Please model this.
Amino acid sequence: MSTLRPLLWTGRHLRVLDQTLLPHEVRWLDLGTVEEVWEAIRSMRVRGAPAIGIAAAFGLYLGLRDEDAQSFWARMEELIRYLGTARPTAVNLFWALERMRRRAEALRDRPVEEIQEALLAEALAIQAEDEAQNRRIGEHGLRLLRPHMRLLTHCNTGALATSAYGTALAPILLARERGWPLHVWACETRPYLQGSRLTAFELKEAGVSFAIIPDSAAAYLMQQHRVDAVIVGADRVTSRGDVANKIGTYGLAVLARAHGIPFYVAVPSSSIDFSLERGEDIPIEERPAEELTHFRGIPIAPEGSPVYNPAFDVTPARLVTAFITEEGILRPPFPKALSALRSKLGR
Ligand code: MRU
Model:
């Protein structure tokens, strides 16, 4: 499978692949401060739910590594709050920060240097676990695929959105590795173009047969019986199985249901928010107007046009055929399946 890893710990910096410049420019940035990590998440140099969580964990460490014992605890709370403002929807951000907080709390009586070392180790563990989980998502997801399938996907859920391998792209990349002929319809994913810029980049590198389609072509392709399954990722899944994911996902789920096509959601457990039941309660990020009114700095709308630019939508659980997690495939009823998963994970 792809060896692309968009986040690397150098020993001093978090090295990230700047995804705002892909596919035409491959530029790595060395982030050495918590402010730089916050900016990289906010401006989507690092994006995709699992990658955001990993970056935030390293960001917290970077912000605390030079702190002395006196200021450490207050500064930690301040930075957890600060990093949490970078992007609101992907729960991985909050999950990773909470995990870092718990690690520090467990060592409260220890010297601050020891806590700082433990926080770096925890960030590295979050990253390594994500990679292992994505491999398992790939293996479980493969059981839902067959050679010659035509899969439709949205946004970017590949290695770029994670530590490695990706979530919804993981089974596809594994199928490719096994030599299965598959075809992927990659929705371009307006307005940020994660599909045409990033998913196409990854599928091309991996040698997977694919075509970029305008988001608006999905219904037409389904009507023509040219889609066998839809497979997407998630930024947050609630305890009853509602799914926040890139804007446009809900529309695809409605279309899939109307055409009798399975709709799969690949999700590591770090993207499941067991504390929320209702999808309506998930905070949905609104992105800047310029993402719609301009393209790479060039105006494409009348100056001053009002804009509404939600970055995510919520798909109700009833439209999901199955979740692909690192622990296996979850089938309805999802509240029960997710509650069993929660017990297994000890969360
Ligand atoms: O705004 P983005 O590019 O961060 O949104 C990413 C998505 O919506 C992905 O589908 C989701 O994070 C899952 S990635 C494994």
